[in-house]
Amino acid sequence: MATTNDLKNGMVLKLEGGQLWSVVEFQHVKPGKGGAFVRTKLKNVLSGKVVDKTFNAGTKVETATVDRRGMQFSFKDGTDFVFMDTETYDQLYVTPETVGEAANYLLEGQDCTVAIYEENPLFVELPAAVELVIEYTEPGVQGDRSTGGTKPARLETGYEIGVPLFITTGEKIKVDTRSGDYLGRVNS
């Protein structure tokens, strides 16, 4: 148990019938009249839904101990993703629903963080940007160097994103894992 005065970004709270909510941001507010309160933005750990919630200052909230482990993606076993704990070398099978959007950027041997609560994987966290090779994209036409134009490109993971017209098949690019945006070329 903790109070709303102890809140920190990234802390996981257990609210409303055992649902897990991660604190995205919080703000202590002390109006001139009336009691102080804490305004928070919470993200549901499982569904990803974000809500605003206000607590009275000093209210007790139940915290959940979420273990964030450094893991490496090993391989896919059927539909499950298999991760290896980088410290204990234990293997962890994670369902596609839990991996979610991260599956679009996962390559074998990639390091990531897996959040675990009571031995159940909650979500997979990738670095903010990853480097991937373009598996296929239409060739650019000579003179297609104008800014702002994009074309579809299939990454080595099979996921498709929009890239600038001058990018070619086989190039290594940097991709934002949160938005799926092209961030730039990677110089080899």
UniProtKB/TrEMBL annotation:
<dbReference type="InterPro" id="IPR014722">
    <property type="entry name" value="Rib_uL2_dom2"/>
</dbReference>
<dbReference type="Pfam" id="PF09285">
    <property type="entry name" value="Elong-fact-P_C"/>
</dbReference>
<dbReference type="InterPro" id="IPR013185">
    <property type="entry name" value="Transl_elong_KOW-like"/>
</dbReference>
<dbReference type="GO" id="GO:0003746">
    <property type="term" value="F:translation elongation factor activity"/>
</dbReference>
<dbReference type="InterPro" id="IPR008991">
    <property type="entry name" value="Translation_prot_SH3-like_sf"/>
</dbReference>
<dbReference type="InterPro" id="IPR011768">
    <property type="entry name" value="Transl_elongation_fac_P"/>
</dbReference>
<dbReference type="InterPro" id="IPR013852">
    <property type="entry name" value="Transl_elong_P/YeiP_CS"/>
</dbReference>
<protein>
    <recommendedName>
        <fullName>Elongation factor P</fullName>
    </recommendedName>
</protein>
<dbReference type="Pfam" id="PF01132">
    <property type="entry name" value="EFP"/>
</dbReference>
<comment type="function">
    <text>Involved in peptide bond synthesis. Stimulates efficient translation and peptide-bond synthesis on native or reconstituted 70S ribosomes in vitro. Probably functions indirectly by altering the affinity of the ribosome for aminoacyl-tRNA, thus increasing their reactivity as acceptors for peptidyl transferase.</text>
</comment>
<keyword id="KW-0963">Cytoplasm</keyword>
<feature type="domain" description="Translation elongation factor P/YeiP central">
    <location>
        <begin position="68"/>
        <end position="122"/>
    </location>
</feature>
<dbReference type="InterPro" id="IPR015365">
    <property type="entry name" value="Elong-fact-P_C"/>
</dbReference>
<dbReference type="GO" id="GO:0005829">
    <property type="term" value="C:cytosol"/>
</dbReference>
<comment type="pathway">
    <text>Protein biosynthesis; polypeptide chain elongation.</text>
</comment>
<comment type="similarity">
    <text>Belongs to the elongation factor P family.</text>
</comment>
<dbReference type="InterPro" id="IPR020599">
    <property type="entry name" value="Transl_elong_fac_P/YeiP"/>
</dbReference>
<keyword id="KW-0251">Elongation factor</keyword>
<keyword id="KW-0648">Protein biosynthesis</keyword>
<feature type="domain" description="Elongation factor P C-terminal">
    <location>
        <begin position="130"/>
        <end position="185"/>
    </location>
</feature>
<dbReference type="Pfam" id="PF08207">
    <property type="entry name" value="EFP_N"/>
</dbReference>
<dbReference type="GO" id="GO:0043043">
    <property type="term" value="P:peptide biosynthetic process"/>
</dbReference>
<dbReference type="InterPro" id="IPR012340">
    <property type="entry name" value="NA-bd_OB-fold"/>
</dbReference>
<dbReference type="InterPro" id="IPR001059">
    <property type="entry name" value="Transl_elong_P/YeiP_cen"/>
</dbReference>
